[in-house]
Amino acid sequence: MSVPDNHAPRNNTDATDLPTGFRYAGVTCGIKPSGKPDLSLIVSDQPVVTAGVYTRNQVIAAPVVLSQKRTPSASIRAVVTNSGNANACTGDQGMQDAAQMCEQVAELIGCSAKDVLVMSTGIIGKPLPMDCVQRGIGDAYSQLASDHDSFLDSAEAIRTTDKERKTVFHRLDFGDRSFQIAAMAKGAGMIAPNMATMLSVILTDAPLTPEVAQTSLQRATDSSFNRVSVDGHTSTNDTLLLLCSGSGAPLDGQELETFQQELTAAAIVLAKKLVADGEGASHVMAIQVHGAEDEASAELIARTVAASPLVKTAVTGGDPNWGRIVSAAGYAGAAIVSEKITLEICGTTIYSKGSPVHFDESALSKKMKSSAEVAIVLGVGDGPGSVEYWASDLTTDYVEFNSEYTT
Amino acid sequence: MSVPDNHAPRNNTDATDLPTGFRYAGVTCGIKPSGKPDLSLIVSDQPVVTAGVYTRNQVIAAPVVLSQKRTPSASIRAVVTNSGNANACTGDQGMQDAAQMCEQVAELIGCSAKDVLVMSTGIIGKPLPMDCVQRGIGDAYSQLASDHDSFLDSAEAIRTTDKERKTVFHRLDFGDRSFQIAAMAKGAGMIAPNMATMLSVILTDAPLTPEVAQTSLQRATDSSFNRVSVDGHTSTNDTLLLLCSGSGAPLDGQELETFQQELTAAAIVLAKKLVADGEGASHVMAIQVHGAEDEASAELIARTVAASPLVKTAVTGGDPNWGRIVSAAGYAGAAIVSEKITLEICGTTIYSKGSPVHFDESALSKKMKSSAEVAIVLGVGDGPGSVEYWASDLTTDYVEFNSEYTT
Asked: Which domains are delineated in chain B?
């Protein structure tokens, strides 16, 4: 399904507008039995500032163990990614394989292996077919190019069960200088049997210091990738990278503020694409919570509403079932003021000041069913805490897909 | 579905063995359009020690607001319960209606209204049809009796969407004196559209002080009703009561310890019946976690594994998918030792010391599919924390039932 885009970049760029300094390739090396592209390589001609945000799961895939030690950095030269195999729960062999992927890339482009990052996504618990991977890295290196099609090839080769390739392009104009943001992502939590990983790479030619890049990426993540859920299952491989190729004076003051807004907007677009493409999703739930004690409370309430199978199935069925939403808010663990609870679905108020209000149930149900994005606006008091959160609904397709016997 | 009972009482009592001092009735008063029994009354001839444990939801139904102020107590005389209407989110009218139910019972049996407890379960947000309720209380009072059939009538009248009536009977022999425990329960979280409430009443003629009764009930709850989940959605009406009619020296020392074990065992039997009867459930997952840092950590890990839709659907499909279980443990938020993780499903070890091990996948899948209860035993380190937790799986029946348009 596709999703209406309330967070579209303010300046949609022309397809050829990519940040300067990067080359891309995506190839088929044979990891996936389907024969679809499965190896992606992004190379920078110069060392670039790079920030990373990784899974909080304590069971961590080998490529995450390796990459997270290497960011933030001012000297990254490449990101190599394979799909079809997560290289997770693969022990010492997995660590050696991840290291070898970096070493091979480093040799080809002439840099230290510690300046190469690696990501993997796909089946858990199987060793990487390193002969395929090695051939793929060689092929990808020979095809590196800076054009738009090569960027898309690279984005294509990180997909697993994604129904759509996920990219976003933003442009920043600061009068005397302008910058690009180009980003790709795959996945939506652990959406498929034995498949893990949300991966995303955001490229820009804006100049940032490593520390500012790391802070900016974490801020963007907190309002985007950390505010979406499909099934609430945190994978072993989640990796989000920000590579900044820009030279010149690092962004500061108002320019940095604008960059942060655009970076966050780009991350939100990608995050919503993950939800819309979530396994079996028939609707995106866009959940706004306001009036909470603080932002953390608002987020906890939104996450609890988003995770409730009863709320999810109500949205699936087009059922404006305020009881499920209000009671989910009540057990989230954050303070709420029962007599001040208000609830709107798709713009219709159905609960106000702690009591149900009369509304046209049939009309609202029809509207919910026909909306790709169902807006749920929940007031829980008079506090300053508010948040927006996105989640998929829960369908029989999800259950059927995930209960198929696959081992 | 029915469930194998690993926590069967050590002494299954004869059906006529009920605690002394109580009379029961269950009648049809017309709250439910189906015409099924919907009003239950339990009366004690003497004031009894009573403890209560209630929902932690901040959105609390009127009967819970009222009952929780009245326990623990040494002077309770009756519990009146209606099904078909939860009297939740019903404002001041709901509070008046709950109070009036207690007043009517108090007048009939000749006691103070504050010595009557009230429970409600069913649709949220609709006012109670008080004419039906009043007629029902009158009818129930006139039918009160101490025989086994009357107890079952009472248990029958608290059901909503339960497929089975849920009761359990235990007997304690202490040489010179013996006691009975008889208990009833309904529901399994918020299992149905607009239906709320797990309700349970445990009756005994063992003598306990109010404080000891409260502590014992909380301890039993922590190992039973607080360790089950169907959909993780805490209702607005959950109420669990323990009524102790015994006279003589209150239990103490070894007798009290034995009583606690039997009470907990009875609560576990009921809690597992809730899970087995969970909406759409095709298997019970019996999740044991051991080796955690402490019991709270073990419980958090078990609850996270139990709540994962990916784990639930794997069990539905008979898929021994260790990746989903191990990664769920990894994001639970409690410390684990990755390289010491072990996992058994239905007695077969499939993951050991942090690595997958070879096993007969087809045989294990067949065993999972044919087991009403799928045992998942997860070791996460060398710590002393262990726990047992029960949950239902996730089926297309659950999604279909809960996504039907009902408002």
From this structure: 22-274 (3.60.70.12), 284-403 (3.10.20.340)
d(C-alpha A173, C-alpha A175), whole Å: 6
> What would the two tokens of residue B255 be?
């007798």
Residue A197 has pLDDT above 70, yes or no: no
The reply to whether A331 touches chain B by the CB within 8 Å rule is yes
Which residues contact residue B365 at a Cβ distance below 8 angstroms, ignoring those fewer than 6 apart?
A: A405, A407, B318, B319, B320
DSSP character at residue A225: G
SS3 label, residue B264: helix
CB proximity under 8 Å: A 182-221 to B: 190, 193-194, 196
Q: Tokens 């030690």, residue?
A: A69
Minimal Cα–Cα distance from B390 to chain A, Å?
A: 18
Global pTM? 0.81
N- to C-terminal Cα distance for chain B?
28
Residue A14 is predicted with a pLDDT of 42
Report how far apart the first and last C-alpha atoms of chain A are (Å, whole number). Answer: 28
Instruction: Tell me how far apart the alpha carbons of residues A124 and A54 are, in angstroms, rounded to a whole number.
Output: 17
| Helical packing angle, A62-69 and A91-109, nearest 10° | 50
A71, A81, A160, A197: the active-site residue? A197
Average pLDDT rounded to a whole number, residues B292-306? 94
Interchain pair B405, A58: CB under 8 A: no
| Cα–Cα distance for residue pair B312/B389, rounded to 1 Å | 14
pLDDT at B10 over 70: no
Look up tokens 């907190």; give the residue. Answer: A222
Give B387's DSSP letter: E
Chain A: give the shortest CA distance to residue B164, in Å.
Answer: 22
Express each pLDDT in A219-259 by its tens digit. Answer: 999 888 888 877 766 777 888 999 999 988 999 999 999 99
The answer to whether A308 contacts B407, with C-beta atoms less than 8 Å apart, is no
Task: Examine residue A250 and say whether the peptide bond preceding it is cis (omega within 30 degrees of 0).
Answer: no
CA distance, residue B31 to nearest chain A CA (Å): 19
CB A92 within 8 A of CB A52: no
Which two three-digit tokens encode residue B293?
Answer: 């840092």
Extract the tokens encoding A269: 């677009």
Global ipTM: 0.78
What is the percentage of chain A residues whose pLDDT exceeds 90?
67
Letter string b/e over residues B150-176, b meaning 16 or more CB atoms within 10 A of that residue's CB: bbbbbbbbbbbbbeebbbbbbbbeeee
B124 C-beta neighbours (distance < 10 Å), count: 28
Shortest CA distance from A279: residue in chain B: B310
Three-state SS across B280-302?
A: CCCCEEEEEEEEECCHHHHHHHH
Q: Give, in order, the Cα–Cα distances in Å from A167 to each of A242, A262, A272, A324.
A: 14, 14, 11, 35
Nearest by CB to B233, from A196, A310, A355: name it: A310
Task: Report CA torsion sign: A302, A308, A309, A310.
Answer: negative
